[in-house]
TrEMBL record:
<feature type="binding site">
    <location>
        <position position="391"/>
    </location>
    <ligand>
        <name>L-glutamate</name>
    </ligand>
</feature>
<keyword id="KW-0597">Phosphoprotein</keyword>
<dbReference type="InterPro" id="IPR027302">
    <property type="entry name" value="Gln_synth_N_conserv_site"/>
</dbReference>
<dbReference type="InterPro" id="IPR001637">
    <property type="entry name" value="Gln_synth_I_adenylation_site"/>
</dbReference>
<dbReference type="GO" id="GO:0019740">
    <property type="term" value="P:nitrogen utilization"/>
</dbReference>
<feature type="binding site">
    <location>
        <begin position="301"/>
        <end position="303"/>
    </location>
    <ligand>
        <name>ATP</name>
    </ligand>
</feature>
<dbReference type="GO" id="GO:0006542">
    <property type="term" value="P:glutamine biosynthetic process"/>
</dbReference>
<protein>
    <recommendedName>
        <fullName>Glutamine synthetase</fullName>
        <ecNumber>6.3.1.2</ecNumber>
    </recommendedName>
</protein>
<dbReference type="GO" id="GO:0005737">
    <property type="term" value="C:cytoplasm"/>
</dbReference>
<feature type="binding site">
    <location>
        <position position="352"/>
    </location>
    <ligand>
        <name>L-glutamate</name>
    </ligand>
</feature>
<dbReference type="InterPro" id="IPR014746">
    <property type="entry name" value="Gln_synth/guanido_kin_cat_dom"/>
</dbReference>
<dbReference type="GO" id="GO:0005524">
    <property type="term" value="F:ATP binding"/>
</dbReference>
<feature type="binding site">
    <location>
        <position position="370"/>
    </location>
    <ligand>
        <name>L-glutamate</name>
    </ligand>
</feature>
<keyword id="KW-0547">Nucleotide-binding</keyword>
<dbReference type="GO" id="GO:0016020">
    <property type="term" value="C:membrane"/>
</dbReference>
<feature type="binding site">
    <location>
        <begin position="294"/>
        <end position="295"/>
    </location>
    <ligand>
        <name>L-glutamate</name>
    </ligand>
</feature>
<feature type="domain" description="GS catalytic">
    <location>
        <begin position="131"/>
        <end position="501"/>
    </location>
</feature>
Amino acid sequence: MSSTVPTGTSRFEVFAEPGSYRVVRPTNAEGVIDLINRHGVQIVDLKFTDLPGLWQHFSITLPEVSESLFQNGIGFDGSSIRGFQEIHESDMLLVPDATTAFVDPVCATPTVAIICDVVDPVTHEPYSRDPRYIAKKAERYLRETGLATTCYFGPEVEFFIFDSIRFGQDAHSGYYFVDSSEGEWNTGSDEGAYGGGNLGYQMRYKEGYFPVPPHDTLQDIRSEIVLMLQSIGVQVEVHHHEVATGGQNEIDMRFSTLTRMADNVMLYKYICKNVARKHGKVATFMPKPLFADNASGMHCHQSLWQEERNLFYDASGWALTSDVCRWYIGGLLHHAGALMAFCAPSTNSYKRLVPGYEAPVNLAMSQRNRSAAARIPMYSDSPSARRVEFRCPDPSANAYLAFAAMLMAGLDGIEQKLDPGEPLDRNIYDLPPEEAAAVRQVPASLDAALAALESDHAFLCKGGVFTDDVITTWLEYKRKREIDAVKLRPHPWEFHLYFDV
């Protein structure tokens, strides 16, 4: 919840949840300047997101901070940013969003960080390839449809913390090595999780959910991440070790509105990576870094609200869901092939999306059932808790684009009243072959997902949310920079399979 500070200080907004930190965020430029003064800040850091989804930044000194910065922006070279401008049109502007300002807990020098929007300096319009702008347009389009006023997202972002990582490839070699003192593969090593010899508390494969310490060596690191996130206004509900051996984790943030939640995902990744580094470890959101164990997903809980009413709830409906909810699910399932181009956007994503590792490859809906792509959580029968959990996305996604795409698919499902099919409340992996053959599955590769996006993206372009330019740029970037790059390189396992042919 949020509330405005009493009279005379409306330049701030208080973000607080029961039992949580009370965090004050600015609402305008004056509030940011006050925040700088109150905390003895010396540097202001401007952050924005490139098209693939990695945070970029540069820092400015205090004399450069004025109200005009928040109106006119500050220039940067857009041609040096992935997925942005060509060299002949490189000048771009960053315009800070005052409501995102926070004292950056990562920096030793007192620093305020602000998330920025990207603006074209010629047209003075928001930049069409700015992921945050696309998310904002999706929320605006939702309101314009009259179907709902708000879309809430609650992603479950999983990640690994390793003790070390090495990788490389050249003309005559290619390798990767990851290590974790928790890893099952270290049961025979001389050094254990605490040094001074192996104490034998490594987690067995697929048994990381939920042993206590000493098996779980990352409890305090996760707690530190949680407290740091809450100190900057990101509310967290729970944290725990995840299924895989070797340091898989999950920290669940409290749901929020679409763009704000995407901002929070960026903050989450930033804090996780930097806290891990502080402890001499490394955090990765790569979906499938380990062979033969569970991968990292980003299950996305979502619901539509009309003011204070949850449109996904119906006391008499299947699993307490409304027609609107089921049509929304119909849109997610119908457009799932295209969605995967944004929700599972790496070649590594499709090492996760295979049967047998709790991977949601089956395009069906269910209640409680984690083998279905769309699940209705049944922990509570409260109207406010009714939501759909779309389980296909993973944390390599650009959250701004993935959330916007899912909303647009769901809205198209409502508009067309798309039937999601009969619920499958059984383990879909154990269906008889004739029944299993009737269940559609997600694309088996990034190649296939991009082909699906190429043929099915009209739903994304409604209301100008995604543009043809964004779709074309995404397809070209992924094909040339990622798919072709992987295709060109020999895989280590190919030597095992083919060296003696």
